[in-house]
Amino acid sequence: MGVSSTSRIVGCLALVALAVAGCGNKAGDDKPSNGTATGAPIIIGLDEDSTGAGASYSTIAGKTIRLAVQDINDKGGVMGRPLQLVVENDESDPTKVPAVLQKLAGQGAKALLLQSGSAAVLQAKSTLTQLGLPAIAPTGVTATLVAPPDHELIYMLANTTNDWADVYCGAFKAANIAKIGVLTDDTTTIAGLNKALFAGMSCVEFVATEKGAVNASDLSAQVARIKNAKPDAVLVTSVGGAFEVLAQNTLGNQMAGTKRFSLASIGNQPSSWKLAAPGALNGLIFMGSINNENPRTKELITLLQAKYGKDYDITAYDAQAWDAVHLLKQAIEKAGGPDDPKKLNAAIQSIQGYPATFGQANFTLSFSADKHLGADGPCGLSLVEFGSDNKPKGPWATYQPPCKK
To answer: What is the pLDDT of residue 264?
Structure first.
């Protein structure tokens, strides 16, 4: 790729990043109405990174959180009361999280949705303990988010990096991959994720690990060093957006014959697919959570496309955001109302076998006092392969995770 071509792509990506941030800010002002619900509002706090490192995925989830709230309100609300969102932005900055959560609590929030980078959400745990408010991290994937200490009030839905490691290892074994090269960005979120993920991947040898700035304009040197290490495959770990596209463009150009894997980020950011060089994503395999054979997924696709147009591409962020809001609705109903945080927390822990909107058709979510990670087995995950048109073409035929370990 020439310098001028790289500059054009980076420029376009910068415009998209600004557009995403702008959409995030607009969405924050787009408050759902009360619909047909007439009682006193039930306030839910949303910590949404709409301008920071996690904005590329947090704004997708945030938009669907608002849609889920509106859909519930249009159907009579929760116990006749409308859900009302109050929203703050922590910019995926862990140092800003305590003040953001305190501000949401001060606005009357009875429960919180933590839609930000993992490093920021991790910082929320001790603050939740101080506030006494239960919270769900809709798209969180780091197991430490729901591990001791200070985990009594925080919950996650999706399979964590522990399951990701098992799935990657199963995939590598099936594809006879023994040596891995890693290309990663420099965000704190990905640094924490890499530490957790790679600790569980003793199944392969890491022969090269290269890092680039999240706003990098050239990754040629990093990819050249990975190529020199002669890995069997390359794993890209990033928050997505401009870095991921640049990484895949460069790998596609310099290491076209090498199998590539990625995290969920690229699969959940349709706007990025259009910015990749023609065919640059072909054969890329990412850790997905969307399976169109799941009937709840089909229902959400219909709703999203009715709202945003028939070309809208559903992501795991949409499905997990949708489920997080409906899990809170169910917990409020089980608790007999939102006003007692201890009862509300116990109600979340009583939810069993919730049919998820993401994952395979029989994938469910369950919680208890000792289980704050909802995923019931690894089949909330699916390895998905990109086609030559730079769009996901379906499950990777070589390997798929089973529903039971």
So the answer is: 86
Domain membership of residue 16 (yes or no) is no
Task: Please check whether residue 151 lies inside any domain of the structure.
Answer: yes
Q: Are strands 42-48 and 111-115 parallel, antiparallel or unpaired?
A: parallel
Domain span including residue 175: 161-288+382-395
**Helix (H) / strand (E) containing 234:** strand 233-237
Q: What is the CATH number of the domain that holds 270?
A: 3.40.50.2300
Looking at the domain assignment, is residue 365 inside a domain? yes
- What is the C-alpha to C-alpha distance for residues 377 and 390, in angstroms, rounded to an integer? 30
Angle at 39 between CA 36 and CA 45, to 5 degrees: 95
- pLDDT tens, 230-280? 999 999 999 999 999 999 999 999 999 999 999 988 988 888 999 999 999
d(CA 391, CA 396): 13
Q: Please check whether residues 96 and 212 belong to one and the same domain.
A: no
Query: Comparing C-alpha atoms, which of 140, 89, 136 is closest to residue 119?
Result: 140
Strand intervals (E) in 130-196: 135-137, 154-156, 179-185
* Strand spans (E) along 104-204: 111-115, 135-137, 154-156, 179-185
> Distance (Å, rounded) from C-alpha 288 to C-alpha 46?
25
Q: Within the chain, which residues score under 50 in pLDDT?
A: 1-29
Rg (CA), the chain: 20
Does 130 share its domain with 233?
no
In the chain, the amino acid numbered 288 is G
3-state secondary structure of 77: coil
Query: For the chain, how many structural domains are there in total?
Result: 2
Q: What is the pLDDT of residues 140-172, one digit of tens each?
A: 988 899 999 999 999 999 998 889 999 999 999
- 210 and 73 within one domain: no
Residues 141 and 253 in one domain: no
Nearest to 111 by CA among 135, 144, 78: 135
- Give the strand pairing for 259-262 and 233-237: parallel
